[in-house]
Amino acid sequence: MSKSLSYNRHGFTLILLSICLMVIVFLGITLSTVLNSNYVKKVVSSEANVTLIKNYTNQRLGRLVNSYSISTNLSSVNLTNKDVKKIINTSVDEVYSDDSQLTIGSAILATISTKLKAEAQNYGLNIDNEIDTVIKSNEDLMNQIVDNDLGPIETVIVKIQTIKKLIKTVMVAAAGIFILLAIRLRSKVGSNMLFFHHLGTVGICTSILLAIVLGCVYYPLQDIIVSNIDYNVRDVLYNVLNGIFLSYITIIFMVFIVSLIDWGSTMKYKY
């Protein structure tokens, strides 16, 4: 039997290997980006996103803070970029702790409380208890406002740890199947170079599958953001979405190039 015929015989195995590798790579990228709190902090804390979040938060807080008599003698409290980054870090940590009840609004109000107390002291006012009372009475309202603005995203992000465990389980299963199929393929082809040529083919097919999956995921997510997310945070989520998907595209391109080089350099062993 010729090597060319051997190559054609293993088409189904190559397809299964490509699917397994696609699952491993896609979920691996997801774990290291979307489900990685440090990565998300880095993306969300970009200057453009911080400015957008600051404007959104100040808009939401403006009437809430200035509507109380205890703060009428204080200047309007506005969040700075430093304040926003602190809130982002606290909020992301909370999201990735798999808390069933998000309190991002509480993190925002805690920052406001600190700023109000500092400003009150500058005016010689001792109203810390009053400020605590006001902040506490509005935590539920602020949390609800943020949850409403996040829309359906909020129902997903409270299950981060559960999703991560599920993804790791699927990756282990896919990796096990991939290894078994690869061992079987190597035993069937009887040549290391032909085996590596097949792996190059698998890598190219995987890149194509990843590109298709990426397109199928990206545009529905865009529609969800447009249809369900409050306009104040829509631009932030767009920026985050594009930043994360750029990472996917970069890795897919790298897989394609490496596989193409491997496939081309071992092509003569196909025949």
**Helix-residue proportion:** over 70%
Give the ordered list of helices and strands.
HHHHHHHHHHH
Shape: elongated
Question: How far apart are the first and last residues' alpha carbons, in Å?
Answer: 11 Å
Mean pLDDT: 80
How would a crystallographer describe the biggest sheet? none
The fraction of residues in strands falls at under 5%
What is the alpha-carbon Rg in Å? 26 Å
Low-confidence stretches: 1-5, 68-74
Number of domains: 2
Give an overview of the whole structure.
This protein has helices spanning 3-9, 11-32, 37-44, 47-66, 81-95, 104-122, 128-150, 153-157, 160-189, 192-228, 231-265. The protein has 271 residues and is mainly α. The protein folds into 2 domains: 3-35 and 159-270, no CATH class; 45-95 and 99-157, no CATH class. The chain is built from 11 helices and no strands. Helix content is 82%, strand content 0%. Helix 2 (11-32) packs across helix 10 (192-228). This is Cell division protein FtsX. The chain crosses the membrane at residues 12-35, 166-183, 195-220, 240-261. It comes from Companilactobacillus kimchii. Keywords: Membrane, Transmembrane, Transmembrane helix.
